[in-house]
Amino acid sequence: MRKIEFVSCHKLPERSFFYKGKQFPFCARCTGIYVGYFIFIPLLWFIKIDIYLALLAILPTMIDGLTQAYFNRESNNFLRFFSGIIAGYGLAGLSDFIAYWTVYFFKYIFIN
Fold it and tell me: In CA terms, which of 29, 54, 62, 91 is 20 to 30 Å from 8?
């Protein structure tokens, strides 16, 4: 039987940031995604993101990651981090969209 584990990040040293000689707990791309997500989640109280813009914001990170995985291309940590921040923005918008429609569904379908 296989052991199933939750893997949040590959944590490769060459794709991670270091501070005072210690490696960050996540790679540059995941760090950017988490930073972007936690910056933009509070902003969603004031600024709503269209679902298409949210999906479009995730695209640069997907392109960067997939071209690295399937083509002979190496990205740098700067590009990984900033495309991750943009993806965090998109994921925050996507989370907001899903939460809104979940509440709408339960409120108007089950309660009314």
Answer: 54
Token pair in block for residue 45 = 């109280």
3-state secondary structure of 87: helix
Where helices occur in 44-110 by DSSP H, the ranges are 51-70, 77-105
CA distances from 84 to 41, 51, 112 (A): 15, 18, 40
CA neighbor of 26 nearest in space, from 36, 99, 60:
36
* pLDDT by residue, tens only, the chain of 112 residues: 344 444 577 778 788 888 898 888 888 998 999 999 999 999 988 988 899 999 999 999 999 989 988 998 888 999 999 999 999 999 999 999 999 999 988 888 877 6
CB 87 within 8 A of CB 94: no
Which helix (H) or strand (E) segment is 33 a member of? helix 28-43
Question: Nearest CA to 83 among 13, 15, 14, 22?
Answer: 15
